[in-house]
Amino acid sequence: MTEHSSNTREDVLNAFAMDFEPGAGILERYLSQYPEYSLQLVDLSRELSREFDDDTPLSADDLAAVSAGMRRLQERPATLQALQEAPAKTFTNAAKALGWPIQAGLALRERRIEASTIPARVHEKLAQALQASVAVLNSFLALPPQTSQLRASKSSIKPVAAEKVSLERTLREAGVNEEALSKLLDDE
Predict the structure, then answer these.
(1) Which of 30, 35, 73, 131 is the 20 to 30 A CA-CA neighbour of 168?
(2) Among 174, 173, 114, which Cα is nearest to 144's?
(3) H or E element: which one contains 42?
């Protein structure tokens, strides 16, 4: 290992952490190979050798830090990939939250609704119901529409390529009456 100069400090510390076993002489070996990182290696060795008492209850600060971390994880907005992989139930629940029929939620999941036909206020509510940003929802809806393979295999006629339609048309085809439709699409 004469070419250890190309290794960064982080590379050396990561390798040491992976190799470390208390009392096995690994610290001495790394100190002789990487004397320029001796202080960091000794500090890391001490940290890795520290023992924890699992029976000790968490302090108030520890509990607060854990709670804050959990909130951040729970409040994290959905990504484009997360929406693409989300089950149909995610979209049908969002549709229900907006007062839409389940068919509209499935059309949304299959990206058959044209994003430009969704009023801005409804768009924001929809993004909020999906726990995503409006930009992520727009990116999701901009992807090509897809046909449900499950429904296509149950059909007695050959499926046609999915096409994007307006939200209004989707809601009408789902059996929403005119009065309810105007309430659902009201952009005030």
Answers:
(1) 131
(2) 114
(3) helix 38-49
